Amino acid sequence: MARIDTKVVHGGRDDFMTLGVHAPPVDRSTTYPLASLAEATADLDRMCDGEGEPAYSPIYARVHNPTVARWEQGIAELEDADAAVAFGSGMAAVTATLLAAGAVGRHVVAIRPLYGGTDHLLASGLLGTRTTWATPDRVAEAIEEDTALVVVETPGNPTLTLVDLADVVAQAGEVPVLVDNTFATPVLQRPLEHGATWALHSATKALGGHGDVIAGVVATDAARARTLRQVRIVTGALLDPQAAYLLHRSLPTLALRVRAAQASAIELSKRLQGHAGVLRVCHPGIADCDPDGIVGRQMDGPGSLFTFEVEGGLEAAGKVMAAVRLMTPAVSLGNTDTLIEHPAGLTHRIVDPAALASAGISPGLLRVSVGLEDVDDLWEDLDQAIAAAAADA
Ligand SMILES: *Cc1c(COP(=O)(O)O)cnc(C)c1O
Questions:
Q1: Could you give the strand order of the β-sheet that contains 305-310, starting from the edge strand earlier in sequence?
Q2: Is residue 180 annotated as a catalytic residue, yes or no?
């Protein structure tokens, strides 16, 4: 089995030689000519039953798209999963997984913090689920007879809290576990290796990596992938083939991008510790932020996001965002450029205020997703922005 740096380059390209192409072909057909009705109906039956590949024809673009399927294959290989199923956004992937897990009308156990949208989806019960919020050590006691799945994110968005996946899986027992692996990427963490049932990504982030695609993907076992495809066909939460092409184009540089950004995140979070105007810094590479030794055991590296809390709360945090000149003051993460955002005001605005406070998402907290710029340029920018916010106080 190839190693990760090889997989990112070659994943999902198995049929290129046969096709005689070198770049992923973009198939934009919505419908396909079906001269053989017998073969078409056989394929339609199989694909509506969740089969991943047609024998004769994709039939119709909501049923199957070859450009999307190639990228899915690449992601499945990275996650060491039987298959991966792509969706039009990370939230569409979360929704499809809840539907496929049969969670509608049932109970869910979830560990905070989660991405704001996922938190809101579960807290609001919009899909008819009922959620018990558990701390990582209390998952077992939160499980009920009717629990459909456990939802966890590690590193957690935005505080970078790390969760021991093997422990959560053990506590969940027979109940399947969904892991949002967006922050780590499969380069640094493969949840299925630790017993998770689904590894989910907002591919809008590092998998896309260039801030120009919105997408989601779920890697899982063959049977569950079938159910996810069935859900995708009937809900129509599709990934556009042009988006799949861009995602596939980004895949070969994934490991390089993740490691380069990670190296700068390690350096910047080190320099920020004890810096004037900064109350605390969190990065999984800092021992205090990884009390259980997850990095090295469950994660192959600490990743490219860190958070810090500025003195002066909300007002000072706003000033830092206004004062950066090189970093982009924006939500999202995993881009080529460095992004800085205010979780309490933006990505997690939709989360219950009491839950925000108990998760440590304070008014002065800023989250940085490190990009590929020169680390000294980034440092100078961050340093001047923090100084400008303090001077203005
Ligand atoms: C962005 C994000 C999502 C949602 O993904 P979209 O592509 O914006 O729908 C889910 N989980 C995490 C961890 C995210 O960062």
A1: 278-282, 305-310, 365-369, 339-341, 328-329
A2: yes
115 is catalytic: yes
Sheet holding 107-111, edge to edge: 83-87, 216-220, 198-202, 177-180, 147-153, 107-111, 130-134
34: tokens are 């079906």
| pTM for the model | 0.96
Among 344, 335, 337, 284, which residue's Cα sits nearest to residue 154? 284
> How far does the centroid of ligand 1 lie from the alpha carbon of residue 90, in Å?
5
Rg for the chain, CA atoms, rounded: 21
**Distance of alpha carbon 304 from the chain centroid:** 13
Q: Could you tell me the mean pLDDT of each successive run of 10 residues in the chain, 393 residues long?
A: 94 96 97 98 97 97 98 98 98 98 98 93 97 97 98 93 98 98 98 98 98 98 98 98 98 98 98 94 95 96 97 94 97 96 87 82 94 98 95 76
- What is the CATH number assigned to the segment(s) 254-391? 3.90.1150.10
**Among residues 181, 191, 249, 251, which one has the least CA distance to residue 216?**
181
User: Looking at ligand 1, which atom is closest to the CA of residue 157?
Assistant: 13
Between the CA of 215 and the centroid of ligand 1 the distance, in Å, is 9
* DSSP string covering 118-182: HHHHHHHTTTS-EEEEE-GGGHHHH--TTEEEEEEESSPTTT-----HHHHHHHHTTS-EEEE-T
CATH topology of domain 4-253: Aspartate Aminotransferase; domain 2 (3.40.640)
Does residue 205 carry a catalytic annotation?
yes
Residue 343 beta carbon below 6 angstroms from any ligand 1 atom:
no
Task: Return the exposure string of 131-154: e unless at least 16 CB atoms fall within 10 Å of the residue's CB, then b.
Answer: bbbbebeebeebbeeebbbbbbbb
* Domain residue spans of the chain: 4-253, 254-391
Q: Which residue has the CA at smallest separation from atom 5 of ligand 1? A: 90
Distance 212 CA to ligand 1 centre (A): 14
